[in-house]
Amino acid sequence: MTALVTGDRLLDILRRSGLVADARLVPFAARPDLVADATALAAALIAAGLLTPFQAKLLLAGKYRGLVLGSYRILDQIGRGGMGTVYLAEHASLKRKVAVKVLAGHQATTDHGTAQFYREAQAAAALDHPNIVKVYDIGRFGSVHYIAMEYVDGRTLAQLLAAGPVPFDAAADYVAQAAAGLQAAGDRGFVHRDVKPENLIVDRGGTLKILDLGLAHEAAAVGADRPALDTASVHGTPDYIAPEQALNAPVDIRTDIYSLGVTFYALLTGRPPFTGTTSQKLLQHQLNAAPPFGDLPTPPPPELERVVAKMMAKRPADRYQQPADVIDALAPWLSPSALAATQTWSTGATLSRSSTSVTALPDPPAPKSRAWLLPAAGVVLAALVVACVAAAVVLLG
């Protein structure tokens, strides 16, 4: 670590940060060798368990603001996205490790950004399911908005995919668990809208949890929320976005089923189905079937291929109508215990399909040009809009 501050300056900054009580710093301040060498002082504090390497790096650079957010001490950075940065933190009193998402500075200055951020917290807090990350707290410390969530010690499916395709039975298990969480969200009226490997994390015990409800909305509230929050651009990730979502048309739980199907395809093959620029991927989601599995060294069983194909049907009406239907279709590849776990909610009640009907989505309206404002789409988008509008009636009837 390269020190930008002296040892005594480091002690002063550390006191200002609120990370360590003054009384615990007295022994270190009494050592001239440490006071004279900030790097050595930081190393001693790390060895004593008073600082983490992440904290020390910032403090040595003279940065201390934001290392304490209310009752939470920031320990490390564990993720970053468009909405903000995620940190590993510890509750000062409970000594519980949590994941704290901090709203990005540019987002915090807009009503849209703060509304979407708080909507994520409210959406997740309304859900209590073993396959959805829990929200513990939401708050504001000074100008910083944050959400404290369950910390999952594990790896995302994206990290697992870095090593290549996932075995068939493991892929089916992960998808079934994700479907269970999406069903719980759907039963409360929520659509995730950004299901992808990066937003699905598996803990050390094999339990999958859904992350990042930042794009989630209540399907019943489209009329009230969507004009204010969702019409400025197409939401979702081009590799995994559903056809109707790319058109900025109405979405429902079947939109999440499509994205989960693309995720399933990626787990089985090691890659998303479509390649190219953003606009090319969007167009392929509209018009092209996913490449066949036959080119794989060990293709999945035909029955599993059919499950993926149905999840990725272009028309919502041709897909599984509920995530629970996906779980049923995957039952032959699930162990009895895994199947029971995915079909039983936190209340202990077995899933009922007595109210699983879905209202048919209307044909999408002709998209406005602004609905295609995705990064790096360029002037190609104009031609893409024309092609998609021409196909809309066929695709989304």
Strand-helix topology:
Blueprint: H1 7-17, H2 22-29, H3 32-35, H4 38-47, H5 53-60, E1 68-69, E2 72-80, E3 84-91, E4 97-103, H6 105-108, H7 111-125, E5 135-141, E6 144-150, E7 154-156, H8 157-161, H9 168-187, E8 190-191, E9 200-203, E10 208-210, E11 217-218, H10 222-229, H11 243-246, H12 253-269, H13 278-287, H14 302-311, H15 323-330, H16 336-342, H17 380-396
Antiparallel strand pairs: 1-2, 2-3, 3-4, 4-6, 5-6, 7-9, 8-11, 9-10
Helix pairs in contact: 1-4, 9-12, 9-15, 9-16, 12-14, 13-17
Beginning-to-end CA distance, first to last residue: 60 Å
CATH topology of the largest domain: Transferase(Phosphotransferase), domain 1
> Shape, please?
elongated
The portion of residues assigned to helices is: 40-55%
The domain tally reads: 3
Q: SSE order, as H and E? A: HHHHHEEEEHHEEEHHEEEEHHHHHHHH
Please, could you describe this protein's structure?
- With 397 residues, this protein is of the alpha+beta class.
- It has 3 domains: 7-60, no CATH class; 68-150, Phosphorylase Kinase, domain 1 (2-Layer Sandwich), CATH 3.30.200; 154-396, Orthogonal Bundle (Transferase(Phosphotransferase), domain 1).
- The chain contains 17 helices and 11 strands.
- It has helices at residues 7-17, 22-29, 32-35, 38-47, 53-60, 105-108, 111-125, 157-161, 168-187, 222-229, 243-246, 253-269, 278-287, 302-311, 323-330, 336-342, 380-396, and strands at 68-69, 72-80, 84-91, 97-103, 135-141, 144-150, 154-156, 190-191, 200-203, 208-210, 217-218.
- A 6-stranded antiparallel β-sheet has the order 1-2-3-4-6-5.
- Strand 5 and strand 6 form a beta hairpin.
- The protein is elongated and about 70 Å long.
- The model is unreliable at 221-233, 345-357 and 359-397 (pLDDT under 50).
